[in-house]
Write a structure and sequence with these properties.
By secondary structure, this protein is mainly alpha-helical. 43% of the residues lie in helices and 8% in strands. A three-stranded parallel β-sheet has the order 2-1-3, with helices on both faces.
Length: 173
């Protein structure tokens, strides 16, 4: 066999091997069914981002991507659902500081999942912020003034996204 024929056979073998590997690679055909993103409570930032992402991924992949919003426990409820789901990439959770960081301390040994062992990050979707706002009748114009005011007034009521959420923890500081 000539060296030219050996090169052609070698090239053909490489192509065949690569095409077989591609055909057996599940990522090559992903997604082949509906993908579910578990968001947080309806109307939350994680819910909104999940819905926007689902819309864009459905358009791009041509496969349905749906949002399953589940509220409660600072995001640990939907996070636990995904932790107990098959590890096939069809159940995703919009992770954030609540279920991935705060819950580790808040729920300690009762947290039903391990954020570092039960999940694999895919990408950062957004960065969030916590904003302090007051009613215009509150006589403050800075965070420092608000702290002084709050200490003078004692217990103040505030709104948050729920127990264990970032806004709850920031407000209880």
């Amino acid at each position: 066999m000539s060296s030219q024929m050996k090169k052609i056979f070698a090239f053909a073998a490489i192509l065949l091997t690569a095409s077989l590997a591609y055909a057996q690679d599940p990522a090559a055909s992903y997604p082949s069914k509906t993908v579910r993103i578990f968001g947080q409570g309806t109307g939350s930032t994680a819910d909104y981002l999940s819905r926007y992402l689902a819309l864009k991924l459905t358009e791009r992949w041509g496969q349905p991507v749906i949002v399953d919003s589940r509220a409660g426990a600072g995001g640990t409820i939907p996070t636990d659902v995904v932790a107990k789901s098959p590890t096939d990439g069809y159940n995703l959770v919009m992770g954030h500081i609540g279920p991935m960081v705060s819950a580790v301390t808040l729920y300690a040994k009762n947290l039903p999942y391990d954020p570092t062992k039960d999940f694999e990050p895919i990408t950062m979707v957004a960065q969030g912020v916590v904003v302090l706002v007051t009613h215009p009748s509150v006589p403050v114009s800075s965070a420092q003034e608000f702290i002084v005011y709050a200490r003078q007034k004692g217990d103040l009521a505030y709104g948050s996204a729920g127990n264990g959420s970032t806004s709850h923890l920031a407000g209880s500081s």
